[in-house]
Write a structure and sequence with these properties.
245 residues, alpha/beta, Rossmann fold, disordered C terminus
């Protein structure tokens, strides 16, 4: 169930990595409480940069980003975690030399007292990990590592979860499983913003979606509306298909 409260708001955001070079050029986005919001678009559109801008990993040079009504521009990642924002990057998202349990504990460095309660929550969604907590993350498949990465983020008890291409590099079967888990996380009450390479599948499960192009939002609507929009189909879904990032 989604609410009307805007949890995350981006207004005319300009951001980039190199001096004088912006990747985001006036991006706008709203995620309401309990929503699952998808972001699709061609390569180089700024999709991952948008998530990193929210999480304080890229310099915001213009516009505003608000979480629960308060501007977070300039805040570092640790401050955002304390405000209930968690981020799962596309790659290098687990500690391979650590066990699954140790990876999950790393997600609770700010509040270790709630470990047992949060472990029960995440293994309720990712039940297959519950009996393998002593297994090293480096021995897991790509799909299993993605599960551990999402679990570690959820250990923080976030109100907002940012996911950067959770299905990237996975087999079709593993991709379907990843989308099911994302939906389960969202249904548990976590407002979720997901960048995804599999454009059609993303829009099928999202409450609302954004098409990002050249660093700004080109189209916005419900997932169903975007899937059926002739312009979106012609300009993006036909070329993005199920593989393009």
């Amino acid at each position: 169930m989604t609410g009307s409260k805007a949890v995350v708001e981006l207004t005319d955001v300009h951001a980039g990595y190199l001096p004088g070079v912006n990747i985001l050029n006036g991006a706008n986005l709203v995620a309401h409480e309990g929503e699952l919001v998808g972001i699709i678009g061609p390569n180089g559109a700024g999709k991952s940069t948008l998530l990193k801008a929210i999480f304080g990993l890229v310099q915001v040079r213009g516009g505003d980003i608000r979480v629960n009504g308060e501007s977070i521009v300039g805040l570092k990642a640790d401050k955002l975690v304390a405000r209930g924002v968690a981020f799962v990057p596309q790659t290098n998202n687990v500690f391979p030399s650590l066990t699954i349990a140790e990876n999950l504990q790393m997600g609770l460095y700010q509040n270790p007292k709630i470990y047992a309660r949060r472990l029960e929550f995440v293994t309720g969604i990712f039940a297959e990990l519950g009996g393998r907590l002593n297994q090293r993350a480096g021995s897991l498949s790509g799909g299993e590592r993605q599960m551990v990465a999402m679990c570690r983020a959820l250990m923080m008890d976030p109100s907002v979860l940012l996911l950067d291409e959770p299905s990237a590099g996975l087999s079709p079967v593993r991709q379907d499983d990843a989308f099911i888990r994302v939906s389960d996380i969202n249904k548990a009450g976590v407002t979720t913003i997901m960048v995804e390479q599999n454009a059609r599948r993303c829009l099928q499960i999202c409450d609302r979606g954004y098409v990002l192009d050249q660093g700004k939002d080109a189209y916005e609507g419900t997932g169903r509306d975007l899937l059926n929009d002739p312009k979106v189909i012609g300009l993006y879904l036909g070329t993005l298909g199920t593989e393009a990032a």
